[in-house]
Amino acid sequence: MIKAICRMGNPILRKTAQPVTKDYLKTEDFSQLLVDLKDSMNHHGGIGIAAPQIGVSKQIAIIELMGFNRYGQEVNLPLTAFINPKIEYIDLTVQGFWEGCLSVPGLRGFVERAQKVKVTYWDLNGNEQSLEAEGFLATVLQHELDHLFGVLYVDRIKDLTLLSYQEEYNEFVIQKASLD
Ligand code: ZN
User: Fold this and answer.
1) How confident is the model over 71-125, as pLDDT tens digits?
2) CA distance 179 to 140
3) What is the pLDDT of residue 176?
4) CA of 137 to the centre of ligand 1 (A)
5) Which CATH number fits the domain that encloses residue 134?
6) Which of 6, 5, 40, 30 shows the shortest CA–CA distance to 123?
7) CA 74 centroid distance within chain
8) Is residue 12 within 8 Å of 152, Cβ to Cβ?
9) Which of 100, 103, 150, 176 stands the most exposed, by the fewest C-beta atoms within 10 Å?
10) How far apart are CA 113 and CA 138, in angstroms?
11) Which residues lie at CB < 5 A from ion ligand 1?
């Protein structure tokens, strides 16, 4: 079911979300949450979404990136749920992308993040998995996982002159790489 997106200013986006238990993964509530996340992500046009963004303060985020996306980056990550994720920074060299967020509609901001990360998480069955990622996918992972810890991309913009409305971004900003 498509849910309304919680926007910046809603306190749920500023809380650390609750870890879930393995028993929870067997519940109807969990299955429904996954459907709601996917429906809401697709409807609102995101490449990832975290549970707090649809009003559920649980440590669950989903990401789906296939082929060349509209940001000109080729990344392949089939629909994946990251449950109770932990992030490890493998290469602290930073890279910057213009980011956007369903919870901060109409804006774009240039954010520098670690170039390479390793995420350890539970899959849908509660089995531990890990994923190493670099480049654009590393940024997407950091953006989505930040949502589980009360952080928005705007918090990570170092130079606020690089925060722009979408229309002005389209008109004045040369860099094409950005994410929703
Ligand atoms: Zn976001």
Assistant:
1) 566 778 999 999 999 999 999 899 999 999 999 999 999 999 999 999 999 999 9
2) 8
3) 52
4) 14
5) 3.90.45.10
6) 30
7) 17
8) no
9) 176
10) 8
11) 101
Q: Calculate how far, in angstroms, residue 145's C-alpha sits from the geometric centre of ligand 1.
A: 9
pTM for this predicted structure:
0.92
Q: Which residues carry out catalysis?
A: 144
**Which amino acid belongs to residue 126?**
G
**What's the CA gap between 71 and 7, in Å, rounded?**
23
Identify the domain containing residue 138 by its residue range: 11-179
Look at the alpha carbons of 30, 32, 36, 42 in this order and tell me if their dihedral is positive or negative.
positive
Contact at 8 Å (CB) between 3 and 55?
yes
Taking the centre of ligand 1 as the mean of its atom positions, its distance from the CA of residue 5, in whole angstroms, is 10
Q: 139 C-alpha vs ligand 1 centroid, how far in Å?
A: 11
Domain tally, the chain: 1
